[in-house]
Amino acid sequence: MTVKAYAAQAADQPLGPYAIERRAPRPDDVVIEIAFCGVCHSDLHTVRSEWGGTLYPCVPGHEIVGTVSATGSAVTRFAAGDTVGVGCIVDSCRTCSACGEGLEQFCEGGLIGTYNAPTPDAPGHTLGGYSQTIVVDQAYVLAIRHPAEQLAAVAPLLCAGITTWSPLRHWKAGPGKRVGIVGIGGLGHMGIKLARALGAHVTGFTTSPGKTQAILDLGAHEVVVSTDKAAMKAAMGSLDLIINTVSHSHDLDPFLGLLRRDGTMVMVGAPEKPHPAIGVFNLLIRRRALAGSLIGGIAETQEMLDFCAEHGVVSDIELIRMEEIEAAYARMLKGDVRYRFVIDTATL
Ligand code: NAP
Ligand code: ZN
Ligand code: ZN
Q1: Nearest C-alpha to atom 34 of ligand 1 is from which residue?
Q2: Which residue, of 43, 77, 244, 320, has the greatest Cβ tally within 10 A?
Q3: What pLDDT sits at residue 257?
Q4: Are residues 253 and 111 both part of a single domain?
Q5: Is the CB of 248 under 6 A from ligand 1?
Q6: Mean pLDDT throughout 46-72?
Q7: Structural domain of residue 235, as residue ranges?
């Protein structure tokens, strides 16, 4: 079927209207009419080929919520009318040890991302959620249990939510743990909400002094403006875990200095250019660790969505029309997003 979408045709071209083909449903497929799609900084990195290797036409978007309109003959988990989500993963090998453990994001046979990944479907690479409809195997579709009026604000949980939830859980954020979240954009604001809901003591680190009160309102116990050397010095050695979401290359040493003995800083931000080399003594002296984390598996994403439905957690969003996407990207690049743009796909 032919559906409306928004695509970039080259790295230096703005996104614009573009018709795409979605496959006819196979037995295990779920056809989803997309209601809302969040705007992740990874969409911007990809359309502009900042990581290299972008395939065009590029239709980004991996924070998808919508309604099931049809199902294939073998689909048992979903029915027409269900409210569902699709995140960053639409397929994986299903046979490697990572897939076997529900860690599809680390699939050794080749993870199939929601956009820019190989597929037999036209045009040969996956096309994401800046579109009216998507067709996804039921094994990669998530159930949404939030009230219908929250749907737009649920969309960012599918990437920003799971990308912060997964390391918070893996490194056991909870009561008695002191957690820092660095960079308060789409991922960072979810990191604050989720770490707080898990019972940790939460400090937000921002380069934007004007966000201070808003970050406290999100649930942070404390806020440190990371360009304020005295405030950073006062916080040294105080944290068990840091989730670093910053989308640009920056000096990591001041943040490593915030960790206690055996503390870990987990990198989730994926800048175009490498960070400057770290001072290794910052790791040695307190047996600190520098780690990374990539989105999260399907079962873990469902666990996060259910936790958020139960605890009333959603994103703080600004709903935009599809044609406002380039202006939204420009604001995102200035750190001027509170805290996630979400596309109303009805405007396609
Ligand atoms: P975002 O909404 O643009 O937020 C990034 C935040 O980083 C900004 O709001 C800003 O926060 C801070 N920042 C930006 N430029 C900075 C600079 N030059 N120096 C210091 N701080 C700066 O982006 P996002 O959607 O949250 O994504 C963040 C990063 O994570 C992107 O690189 C994205 O590709 C990546 N990502 C990774 C995964 C994964 O699986 N690992 C998943 C999704 C996204 P303040 O104003 O508070 O300083
Ligand atoms: Zn994302
Ligand atoms: Zn696999």
Answers
A1: 42
A2: 43
A3: 98
A4: no
A5: yes
A6: 98
A7: 160-292
